[in-house]
Amino acid sequence: MPESQFHYIEILDRRIKIAASTYLVIFLGGTALILYGIERIAMDLATRQFKIPLIFGSCLVAVFLGLYYGVGKIRWITELHSWMDRRFFRLLDKSDLILFEGLIIALDPEERKEASDLQTLRRESVAKSVFAGLADDNSLSNHLFHTGVFRLWIWYWIAMYGTFAFSLLTVESFSLLLRGVDQYARIAFEISWLSAVGHLLVGVVLGYRLLGLMEHISRILVMSHRVEIATMLRKNLWEKADS
After folding, report:
1. Quick count: other Cβ atoms within 10 Å of Cβ 180?
2. Would you report the helix, strand and coil content of the chain in percent, each value rounded to 5?
3. CB neighbours of residue 189 within 10 Å
4. For 23-28, which contacts have Cβ atoms below 8 Å and span 24 or more sequence positions?
5. What is the pLDDT of residues 56-104, one digit of tens each?
């Protein structure tokens, strides 16, 4: 992998770790604030009693640093993404299916029909297998970097982090509002649900953009690696037939 691409991946990795740590701190901080009492913190600030707010803020900074340096492994992030995606848009599954439908164009018509009969999970597996098989091609890597697909995926996950964190805070602040024990509960609720909806809308827009981009990438793959793709697809079909 060229040094420029490696550096680019490092930047994306750092960005996703910062985002994951930030939104988790927002959720934990918001939850702690709701439990302790938003009104009590506001009163402390209004009366210049900064001890509790400073302790609160220091704990959040410490938690952020611990999370950022503790996340470390990209495998952990990948598992988190899969878990979140299954509970929201299932975009990973949809992108794999779109990639599969584009890749089978490399096959002959009869083989294409046979491939179309595969079950959904098998299609996703085949698409991932073919894509992984082409991953070492430098020209393909260069094209993928230029499409911006990796950057779009990162921003999509960041939007999902925000959607998940603020959705939970919406539930918590709404519960506080129903109890009527904090005059700032309504403000917290409105900020939470507006933030959740905003992140969700951004995620939807990025999701549709990503699906369109995956379709474009599948066409590029077939045009540049038709023979290799057909060979790998046939191998997967034979494995299915033998099993």
Report:
1. 8
2. 90, 0, 10
3. 20
4. 23/158, 23/161, 23/162, 23/164, 23/165, 24/63, 24/67, 24/161, 24/165, 25/60, 25/63, 25/64, 25/67, 26/165, 26/166, 26/169, 27/165, 27/168, 27/169, 28/60, 28/63
5. 889 999 988 888 877 655 556 667 777 777 777 788 888 888 888 888 8
Give the model's pLDDT for residue 134: 74
Q: Which of 137, 141, 138 lies closest to 149 in space, CA to CA?
A: 141
Taking the CB of residue 167, how many other CB atoms lie within 10 A of it?
Answer: 19
With tokens 């991932």, the residue in question is: 128
Query: CA geometry: angle at 63 spanning 65 and 26, to 5°?
Result: 110
Handedness of CA 82, 85, 87, 90 (dihedral sign): negative
